[in-house]
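Budget justification, computational time. The allocation requested in the original proposal was used primarily to generate structure tokens for proteins on the priority list. As evidence of use, we reproduce two of the resulting records. The first is shown immediately below.
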Amino acid sequence: MTMNRGNDAKTSVDEAIIDAARESIMSVGLRRTSIAEIARNAGVSRPTVYRRYADLDELANEVITREFLRILAELREMPGDARQRMVARFRIILARLSNGEFFLNLAETDPERIVRAIIRPKGSSERSIIEQYILPGINHGQEDGSIRDGDPIVLANNVFMVMQSAVLMCSNLLRESVGDGANGADGAEEAVDAAVDEVTEMVDRYLRP
């Protein structure tokens, strides 16, 4: 019982820190966000934040990953074989993230952050997404014959990296349309829809036997 209360308290503090970090990034941009401000808004001390995250980079990457997890948790079961279900989920996730307020803000204020999140070694949260949501789909697809043979971990990692890269691309398309008014926004949305279709088809071909 005591251990459960301790775990609950740690989770609560973790969530408060991540919420505060997201709020600060949305409010002033990543470049002007500081650990001191995050700690203050989360109601914790700076050492408490640093015990969990080595620096602002690591914390920002955790916020980015949680955006993925939030959408993944909302997805319902899809029809079709394992590959069709995975591709359908991929399309929904990509569309929602690309149009999401957080990623649009980040693409405008610090697009390099998303690039660094893509190329840096994967942390525990990214591995959690791959191991809990992508890898099981790869395994099921290889079992039912809808996904090609190959190392399932490699396939899952590559699908995740394509998703990250595509989110940055689509977010940048929308960001660049802001100064062009309604016509620019309409054109950007069409471009994003086309990009989502193209990337989704690419993932489908990559996984197909």
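The second record produced under the same allocation is shown here.
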Amino acid sequence: MEGDRASPVPKVLGSSRSNIPRPAPTKAVPPASATVQAARNLKRRSIEHFNKALSGTPAVKKMALSTLSTPRYSVTRPLPDSMRTGRATMAVPGGQPRYLQTTAASTRRVAPPATTRTKPSPTPSAINRRSASLPRESAEVVEMKAKIVQLEGELLKNKTELELLKSQLTLKDQNLEMLQTSLKCLQDTIAFKDAQLNTIQMALDAEKGKSTMMQVTLDAKDSENAHLKHELCERMEDIGRLTSQLAAKRDELREKDENMRLLHNTVVDLKGQIRVAVRVRPPLGKEQDVPVNHLSYPGVSSIKLDQGKGSQSFEFQRVFGPNMSQARVFNDVEELIMSCLHGYNVSIIAYGQTGSGKTHTMRGGEGESEGIIPRAVKFLFQSREKLADLDWKFEFKASFIEVYNEEVYDLLGERKKLDVKMGSGNTSVTGLKYNEINAIDDIENILAVTDRTRSTAATKCNEQSSRSHAVFELSVQGYNKTSGASRHACLHLVDLAGSERVKESGAEGDRFKEMTYINSALSNLQNCIRSQLNKNPHIPYRNSKLTMILRDSLGAGNSKTLVIVTLNPAVSQIAETKRSLEFAQKMSMTKIGSAKKQEQ
């Protein structure tokens, strides 16, 4: 007891710092308990989660910072009873105090006070031990409370992170739902594409089947083609052999054609260089009421004129009765026109009184009524195509002039007077226009122009009488590319104006002047024919423009000439008919010499 009294008793409460004994030297800190270690681990994880939250999106960072700035719990100092109960209280907003149980290592369990039991007074040593342990236990409690507050803060952070994760999970769920929807669409698309693929595959299989069939057909065609190639080679050999034979036949045909041409022209020469044919037109209008008994046709080349007091017969190259068609007349002059392609000049002249059918014979109408001029051009075009097989090529050019009142005019150009020049060998018209004839339609256009420009007038003898002499000239130029031979010839087709008597025509004024020039030109033509017939040394070609132009056709040149004398069948014209027949007979007796081939 004395020893206990000798040791001073430390003051627990209210004692001064100088009275508190100095603590013993610090010993080594014992290892942390399991609870402390768990609290440290929880704190570390909370800090890591909080740092992750701060490094996240701005919204998450704001939420974490707001949570820390407004803590849900506030720690208070221990209540006085906590010294006895060993529990710390924590104020809960809006609720009752919450007690926190302390660990056994930091507090000493205090038994609840007995109601009737009297506590013994502690001994001084016990009081000293208790006084020494109180500061240490209070520090641990404070530290634990701080740790608990820290852990609760970390727990709050974890809850915030949990809410954030839940939000993210919701977004992920929404994204997942969208992805599932997209997946469903893709699956539907895949199903549709699979269906299309199946259809395409079926079509491909069908095409493969067709391809197989086509390959079989192709193989058959290849076999057939090989057979045809073999046949083609044989045919080519035959063609080569036939080509050689054809060339030989062409040479033979060319030789025979030349012989035929010579024989043909010999026959024409034997018939006479001025050949004369007579054509009687059919009765027209009131003429049909009077029978034509004064004319008869004993043969194809003879005509008989009965004048009542007696009859007279005439022989010519050909006589065309009133029933002869235009085509029949042309058939008889084809051989003469063909001489142009052989290189001989040819002239066909229509002569007769007015209204006897000269223009109808030479110009004609449309279709079957076509005259010698359009038919001759068409015939030459057809003959040119046939001669092309013998390597002949021909070109045609045409001109059309009229002699009106002893003046020459171009019917295809400007209506102006042209000069006629007669040299020693030929006659030319200066300024005359020539049109190329490349197609049959070209001659139709030319004749349409001349029909409008030629001088015509109505007389008592003819309602549309030609008041001029019209001369159509077709220039023929030929060349053979194999032999190199060339030919040049001219075809003259002449429609003379009709002769008239003053008493019969009743012409006055301009008509009388026209009649005078017409009859004068025809009279000069007759004089040239008589001079040829009488073999006079001088032929009066220069007496008129008409005979100057027809000089080459009347014996001065190299021409085969045919004169068609037209007759009016009317009984009232019997005297003029007789005069025309007598002039025709004189012309048929005229020899103008053999025509010469025009070669270059």
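A brief technical remark on that second record: The first helix runs from residue 2 to 6.
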